[in-house]
Amino acid sequence: MLNSRQIPPPAHATETGRDLPAIRAVGKITRLFSFRCELPFPLKIGLGLAAWLCFLALWQWLAAGNPSPLVPTPAQVGASLYDLFINRGFSADVIQSVRRILISFIIAISIALPIGISMGTFPPVESFFNALVSPFRYLPAPSFVPLLLMWLGTGDSQKIALLILGVVFFLITLFMDNTRSVDSGLVECARTLGAKRSNLLLKVIFPSALPNYLNTARQMLAVSWTYLVIAEIVAATDGIGAMMMRAKRFVRVDDIMAGILVIGLLGLCFDLAFRLIHRGVFRYLR
C-alpha cells in the first residue's frame, strides 16, 4: 500500500494555496469598490494626499516641459505665497475677502430661507414669487456690475451686493425644494394630532428639512467664492481679487496662482467647517 504522505497533492490545489494571498488582496480591493462602502479614515486621508501628489507632479511636469514666466512651478508659487504673507501684508487682503463673503452670505441666507420655506409650504406664495425668482436665476450676476457701480459706488456695498445677487435666487429655489422634500407622513400625523399651522411649520417642517438646508448652504457657499474675484477686480483696493489684478499688471503669474490657491484652501476650510457642524448637530442621521 502507498503511504498517504507520499502521494503528492494535486497541481490545482498547490496553485490555489500559492495564490491565496493574491486572491485575498483582490477580494479586499473589490470590497472597497462595493456600492456605498464605508472607507477607513486613514485610507480616505491617504487617497486625498495621493490625489494632491498626482496633481502637483503633473503641474511640475507641465511647468518643467514649458519653461516660461507664464507657467510657474509649484515651488515658485509656494515661494510667492510665502512672500505675500510675510513681506507684502497679504493677510489683510484675505481677511477683507473673508469678511465680504461672510456678510454677503449671511444676508443672502436671511433673505432666501424664509422665502424658500414659504414657497415650499404654501402654493400661493410659490406662485407669487416663482414668477420673479425663476427668471432671475438665469441672469449672470456680473451683468449687474455697471448698475451696482452707479447705484452703490465703488465701496464695499457694491461688492457685497454682487455676492448676494450671485447666490440668493439659487438659495431660494433650493430651500423651496428642501422644504418640499419633508415626508408628507410627518405633516399629516402632526395635523391629525391637532398641530396648528405655526407649530406645523416651526416644529415639524423646519426641523425635518434643517439638515438639507445646511447642505444647501454648504454647496452654495462654494458658488459665492467663485464670484469673489469678479466682485473685487472692479475698482477694489483690497482683497484677494485686488491683489490678483495688481499682479496682472506686472505679469506676476505666480502671485495670481497663489491667490487662486488661497481661495481654494479657504473654500475647503469653510466646507470642512460645514461638514463638522452637520456631523455634530445631526448625529442621528449617521
The share of residues in extended strands comes to under 5%
> Which shape, going by the Cα principal axes?
flat
**What distance separates the N and C termini?**
65 Å
Number of helices: 12
Helix and strand pattern: HHHHHHHHHHHH
Tally of discrete structural domains:
2
Protein model, in words:
The chain is mostly helical. The chain folds into two domains: 42-67; 74-285, MetI-like (MetI-like fold, Orthogonal Bundle). Helices cover 78% and strands 0% of the residues. The protein has helices spanning 11-32, 41-65, 74-87, 90-121, 123-137, 145-152, 156-180, 184-192, 197-226, 228-232, 240-249, 253-281. Helix 3 (74-87) packs across helix 12 (253-281), helix 4 packs parallel to helix 7 and helix 9 packs antiparallel against helix 12. The chain is flat and about 70 Å long. The mean pLDDT is 85.
Write a short abstract of this structure.
By secondary structure, this protein is mainly α.
For the structure shown, list the relevant keywords.
mainly alpha; flat; 286 residues; MetI-like fold; 2 domains
Task: Break the fold down into its secondary structure elements and pairings.
Layout: H1 11-32, H2 41-65, H3 74-87, H4 90-121, H5 123-137, H6 145-152, H7 156-180, H8 184-192, H9 197-226, H10 228-232, H11 240-249, H12 253-281
Helix pairs in contact: 3-12, 4-5, 4-7, 4-9, 4-11, 5-7, 6-7, 7-9, 9-12, 11-12
